[in-house]
Design goal:
Length: 160
């Protein structure tokens, strides 16, 4: 039984651009593609996610704290992330650290799972179909979407 090819040899990038806009986070240490099994080994996703992280897709993993613009994982940006990852079928984006988002953070419904080991801070946070796991706190002035699909290990602090 063959395992998915691990693409650890992808060029490591700190950002990608579409139409002159930087779409991926700034200030990241490392970005790599892993299989769901590999992510489970380093982040215990099989136990922490309601889905057990079993989507049959690849995982785009950022090691270290990430600062991003609100459009980072919207529909257009997510499609571009997949294209620049060699059209791999990315189902999970994982941040092994904290995530700070400038502006409103609207997750694409094309993304199966967002997994963050630390705290997420965003002016507004909106997620409707995406499974979300936050290992720290969620700090936001507005939280919309399907809260039943979002697990926050810490506290939800709606700041005004």
């Amino acid at each position: 039984m063959g395992q998915k090819e691990n693409n650890r040899n992808l060029p490591r990038k700190n950002s990608i651009s579409v139409n002159g806009k930087t779409l991926t986070p700034k200030n990241i240490a490392t970005m790599m593609l892993l299989t769901e099994d590999e992510l489970a080994q380093i982040a215990d996703t099989r136990n922490l996610l309601k889905s057990r992280g079993d989507y049959g897709c690849d995982c785009l993993v950022y090691e270290g704290d990430v600062t991003a613009e609100g459009y980072w994982l919207d529909d257009n940006s997510f499609r571009e992330l997949q294209r620049q990852a060699g059209n791999r079928d990315i189902g999970t984006v994982a941040v092994l650290g904290n995530l700070a988002v400038n502006g409103k953070f609207l997750l694409s419904d094309r993304l199966m799972c967002l997994f963050v080991t630390g705290t997420v801070q965003a002016a507004e946070f909106a997620s409707y179909e995406t499974e979300v796991y936050i290992g720290g706190d969620l700090r936001t002035s507005g939280f919309s979407g399907q809260k039943s699909r979002v697990t926050v290990a810490g506290t939800i602090a709606e700041e005004h």
